[in-house]
Design a protein that fits this description.
The structure holds 2 protein chains of 2 kinds. Chain A is an alpha/beta fold. Helices cover 58% and strands 11% of the residues of chain A. In chain A, helix 12 packs across helix 15. By secondary structure, chain B is α+β, with helices and mostly antiparallel strands. Chain B is 33% helix and 29% strand. The mean pLDDT of chain B is 81. Classes of the chains: A alpha/beta, B alpha+beta. Chains A and B meet through strand 3, helix 6, helix 16 and helix 17 of A and strand 11, strand 12, strand 15 and strand 16 of B.
Amino acid sequence: MEQLADLLAYVFAYLRESVLTILRATPKEIFMATWPIFVIDLPRFTFTAWASVFVEKFDRKDKIARAAFKRKLLLDPPLVSVVVPAYNEGANLLATVRSLMKQSYPNIEIIIADDSSSDNTSQICRMVKGENVRTVRANARQGKAFGHNIGLLLSRGKYIVVCDGDTVFHPDAIMEVLLPFHKENVRGVAGNVKISNPGASIATRLQEFEYLLSIDVGRRFSSRANILWIISGAFGAFHADTIRSIGGWEVSPGEDKDITTCLRKMGHSVAFSPKAICYTDAPKTFRALVRQRLRWSRSLLLLGIRKHGDLLVQAARWKHKKMQNVISAWDIITYNIIFGSGAILVLTYITVFSPELLLTVLLIMGIVYPVVDLVNWVAALILASDKRSVLRLLPYTLISWFYVGIFLKLVMIFAWLDEFFFRSSYHDPYVPEVVRFSKPRWGERDPYAELRAANEQTSNAPVGEVA
Amino acid sequence: MKNTKLVLFTDLDVREIEHLPVNDIELLPAGKAAAEHLPDGALFIHKDPRTALEAISNWRKNAESYLLPVIVAVDDKLASADPELRSSIHQLADYYADILQFTGANIPFLTSQINTRIKDLKIDPEISSVPRARLMLYLATRNISEISPIKDLRSTFGYTWPLVGHLIDTRHIGDEAMLLDGLVSEGLLRAETVEVIHVCPVCENARIASGRSCSKCGSSVIKQTNIVHHYSCGGVFPEQDGWTDDGLRCVKCHRKLVHIGVDYERPVSVDYCTKCGHTEDIFDFKALCFECHHVFPLSDSKNLSIKSYKTARGAKELVEHFRAVSPSSIMELRYVEPIRFSEVLKFSQEHLRRRMDTFSLLTLGLDQQLTFKDSVTLVKHLATALRDTDLITRSDEFKISAILRSTPMEEAEKCIQRIRNEIGNDLVKNVRIEEYSNEPGDNRITTFPWNN
């Protein structure tokens, strides 16, 4: 009892000292604790969120153009091919197809690419097959990119929409995702991805809050500034012929980021449609969430620096030189890798060299960051069409800073180090092993290059001779 | 034993048939003399089965002779060369034999049996003047219980009921299927679907050809092809697009594909149009009508049921029914067969605009399937409540319809009251009145229980 009393007294004294330290802190010390807010959050997220609020209120020209395009689409609707790659999606596929069949857009064909599923996916495919629903089944697992590419090959539509096997669409999703195509140079449109299972756990609720700010609010600005860097694989629409001219999707984790970057390199624009809403399952546990974010972050390094690193310096060979492409490439690198890593490094430095300041810093962050998140949340509330779903997220402004600012950044740093030193993306089971083996290794010498060259020579040699 | 008198029809020389064993059979020459002698039947001895069929058909279409026994001897070898022809002759003949194996042994007995049956039925000429009655009575006197369709590519549907076509001149009645369906409505036959065929949605002709065709260019020259997936670049393309003189190369990155399962895989097979190169998982079926040249997706074709018809009533019931609905009865009862009723209804609708003549269609829903006696009684009662210009028919096993000319809905309701006074509350379950008029908008319809 005495020891417990001593411990409590010590904690109370420490807290009191920390609060007094905060009150006695100099502006310089406060800045040291909160500089990421002024460098990262305020300019990149808060100001841009509120800029979106004002622009969307007063941009009548775009609204008129969209309305006119919508009328045109309804009068003579071009065919839209929706490609659904499915690998063991038996539990969700039926809901996806049903939501597509209930779309307000009148001219849709659905192509389901069954990637040699071992569950009842193929039975569901047989069940839903019909006039507007076609299915194709691979006899061995080929990966998600193959599903997209075979759907592209078989599609007849002017536009192609890709999604996940568990994506459920809002009835107006397809119509809304086509509207940004009223601009001639837009060849890809990102849909607004929301969580379908927000109440499953605290992890899903936090992801719902994160998606709200980063996708629903954040991408509006990126789209208007033409620096949008990703069209999610969960819901994206493309101009079919343009994708064919690129050659389709890449075999890699992060194929959605890759195709978006390729579109930008070709000189095209990509946009975001906030009213094109879809719902997808989020990882329910933190463990599953970590696995997902590790994959995403590795692909960020793999594609952002290794494959498309030339965008960072705007390589002269790209004839469509656009400043927005450079800004878009640096946007991700700067705010995710450089500043994100910087914030964690500073915290690590404080922890190692000035541990007495750690609690103070965390306390300051715990007060200031929620205020910033609250300001961002208000912007999201104004912009959102479903206010109720935003209102229930208010309590998460208190803890989201820890989830996004510390937890996810730690995961990201681990992923980048893992990718940088060990190239773990090349061993990601997201891509089937046999396909992974053949994937080109950007930025490094291909250990199988000689073998491949030898094979090519052997096959070229006349029969009976050894090369 | 009294000799059986048979009218002789032949395409052979008389001397050629003199040797035929026709003891106890008196052969009468065809024509006027035969009519005076009131034959027991007809004997057809033909080398050519086609002329035999034509002659038999003419005999059967005659209202005076259609029921009389028909004995046929043809060259069976020639007849066998055309199975449809042989089948038709079999259906129309009471006795069939090869001309070389013909004996007159059982003929007197057979003809006597049939004639006795005919005599028992006491069929008067007025009944025989109704074409569909002739068909039913023929079936009844021969104990034929079923009229089955046979395949005949010359017909619109690809099927015919030759017995109908040879007994009745269907030119003025409508096609064979319509006539038989009308008999089903009258409760005289039962229909059973034996086949469902696809017909052109425009002209309802069964002569259509279908096959897969390219959705882009319409070509039907389609092959199946493997899809190649190049692992390295993710290229997906039809295999034949990748073959070069140098071997298989990726269409996307142009690298050579050497080892299946290592460099590339063929995970899927799809349809490929050889004309335009378009690929789809499976091309849709399209159909072409040879009659009107309409091209349409096979899924748009109409489904037509081909039915086999079984007799539902005995011979005596049939005679009673047709006596009740004979032409003179029609004048008295205003009763017409369903096909005719439909024609009158269509005619009335078409001329509605010109004649400005509002008429009502009355439909009585019956409580049960009526026997002939009850249905005749009901029709008689109906007739007393209707006018001379109105028409009645039995449109369904459970429905009797009437066209009330120059009658708006209010007058039709008064007419219902008169009918109810006549027939009471039995037999009829509900009544529907549909008024056809020139008023803008849809026709007025009212339905109410009979007891209301």
